[in-house]
Design brief:
By secondary structure, the protein is of the alpha+beta class. The protein is 33% helix and 20% strand. α1 packs antiparallel against α2. The longest helix is centred in the N-terminal third of the chain and has 13 residues.
């Protein structure tokens, strides 16, 4: 998997379009948000999101061996040093007792929240997967 020409503009436009979009299972949850971002960066769809509820998303994650295993199967082995994460990479963070994925903007980690994208400091990353 490689980053396509013009990925920076495509990724920036994707983030802008999702800036005020609230969290919705299967459309704008953490995984579907990151899958869409990876598609903008690489031109490849790593998963076809099939869930519309939290329970369906949890079952899909369990079938893949858990969230870390699912992302590892799609993007390769993660790094465990947040300092190695760069713009356009996927990062796992702990939020409210759950592990969720976010995208690195270069300045922060972001993912969908109730009122749109929420940003966290880079050092909140537990794992990071290189995209392209």
């Amino acid at each position: 998997m490689r980053r396509i020409q013009g990925w920076e503009k495509r990724f920036a436009a994707y983030l802008l379009a999702r800036q005020d979009l609230p969290f919705v299972w299967g459309h704008n949850d953490c995984a579907s948000f990151c899958v869409g971002a990876v598609r903008e960066i690489t031109g490849e769809t790593i998963w076809d999101i099939q869930w519309t509820t939290a329970l369906q998303a949890e079952r899909a994650s369990e079938e893949a061996g858990g969230p870390q295993a699912a992302w590892t199967s799609a993007l390769g082995h993660p790094g465990q040093n947040w300092k190695s994460i760069r713009r356009g990479d996927v990062a796992m963070v702990e939020m409210q007792g759950r592990r969720v994925v976010t995208m690195c903007t270069g300045q922060s980690l972001c993912g969908p929240g109730p009122k749109g994208l929420e940003h966290l400091p880079l050092d909140r990353a537990i794992y990071g997967w290189k995209v392209g």
